[in-house]
Specification:
By secondary structure, the protein is mainly α. It is 84% helix and 0% strand. It is built from 4 helices and no strands. It is elongated.
C-alpha cells in the first residue's frame, strides 16, 4: 500500500509537470510504466532469486501473485485515472468561475 500511495503521488506530479493533455499520452505513460515494472520484477526474480522465466510467471497463479499483479496493473492505470481526474478538476473550476 505504501508503494502504491507513493506511486500515485509521483504519477500526479509527473502528469502535472508534463501537462498530460490527451488520453493517448496517459495510456502510453501507463503502459510504459507497467512494462518496465514487469521487466524489472522478472529480471529481479531471475537474477536475485535464481528463478527461470517460467517459474516467475507461475507465481502469478498464487494468491500472492494475483494480488501483486493487481497492484502492478493499478500502477499502470494510474496515469489514465490522473488524466480523467485532472479533466474533472478543470471542468469543476470552470463551472465555479461561470
Amino acid at each position: 500500500p505504501f508503494t502504491l500511495a507513493a506511486s500515485w503521488a509521483i504519477c500526479a506530479w509527473l502528469c502535472r509537470r508534463w501537462r498530460m493533455s490527451s488520453l493517448t499520452q496517459a495510456a502510453s505513460m501507463g503502459a510504459s510504466a507497467f512494462v518496465l515494472l514487469m521487466g524489472a520484477e522478472a529480471a529481479g526474480g531471475i537474477l536475485i532469486f535464481g528463478r527461470t522465466l517460467g517459474e516467475h510467471f507461475a507465481l502469478f497463479g498464487t494468491v500472492a501473485g494475483v494480488l501483486g499483479l493487481s497492484g502492478q496493473i493499478a500502477f499502470g492505470v494510474f496515469p489514465i485515472v490522473q488524466y480523467f481526474w485532472s479533466r474533472a478538476e478543470v471542468a469543476a473550476d470552470k463551472g465555479l468561475q461561470s
